[in-house]
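Fold in tokens:
===
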Amino acid sequence: MNRWTHILPAACGLAFLLSSTGCAANKNAQEAQRAVSDYFVGDYTQAVKRLGPISAKTDGDFVLNNLRLGSAALADYDLDLAEGAFLRAYEVLNSVGVNDGGRTLGAVLVSENIRIWRGEPYERAMANFYLGLVYYMRQDYGNARAAFENALFKIRDYSGDKPNPDQYREQESNFALAYVMLGRCYQRLRRDDDAAKTFRRVAEMKQYLAELADPRVHAESNVLLVVDFGYGPHKVTNFDGAIVGFAPTPQEVGPAPPPRVEVDGAAYGADALARPPVDIVALAQDRRWQSLDTIRTLKSAVGTGLMAGGLVYGTQHDARPEIALAAILGGMLLKATSQADTRQWEMVPRTTYVIPLKLPPGRHDITVSFPDTAGVRQEWRGLFAPPEGDEATYYFRMQRYGTAPRDWPPPAIARAQAEAGPHADSRP
């Protein structure tokens, strides 16, 4: 009993210290969550206002907050702000060794949360996709092509029941969403052979996208709708907070519902085209699209072993209390610092529909709704369809809230047009 007189108070003291440190409020994180809540209810302008100051802070959430800002600004049609935010995140995500040196060492010894957030592979793919989308909306097809190509980075396929980070094979990306947009870029750049090859790749990956992968459909369209629906999965941990998983699963939520497109009050008949090129809920379950957190898992396992070993050793008659104490405290420290990094880009959609339309030139009221999902509907009044040979791209962020009809142009586009002068058109 005497040997535990010193061990237990010290262990309890360390546990209290670690728990109180972990509960310290982070004002920037709280403000970011308020902005995310604003985004969920469709108040994109307020979300942008909250995220602006904190996205400039070069801390571990720099990439994450800029992606949040880019999502809010894109939905608000502030394309200048969206481009800048996505580009800042893009530059960090595509840099080499961003988490090398002191930051990586600190993550091993203290906490993963001091690492620069770089997201899961599917989040990085969507970051590149959105940067490409902003360029595409501005008809900067060269930069759009580069961004979409970056969204198709090689993915690591770890095989075996016990994946080893040093034993993997690289595979071509199956991110069909970026392939569709890349094919359109090639068409606009007059690289028809590359476009045909890219669309053929889409049809090979997902046969149900055969009609969406028809190059003629895209070549003849003059209006493109890019429609974000739902939200991606959230991270979950196991009983001791060490292993990250993703929920919900595709089986829990069922297939992505089909959208209905109406133009000037009449159904357009885009059912064959309005098919989901990606399901991020399913993608997150694919091992190839997950990050291997071996350091976290190792620290958790070692921590459990040290704690158990210290307790067993401390019960022995000839045990030395200081050794038992060191093992228990060391195990507690490792366990406390092996908690999963559950930060995530909450605005990532479940899926993104790419719907090419061929409309008579002029103004149109366009509505996208999801009849199988109550309350998810968005109408834009006065969208501009250019003459044959040109195109306009419009982004719809589907929400359950903030679904009142919106008039084109939105405030951000109107300001940009005013600055551009009287000859500017009304496209994004």
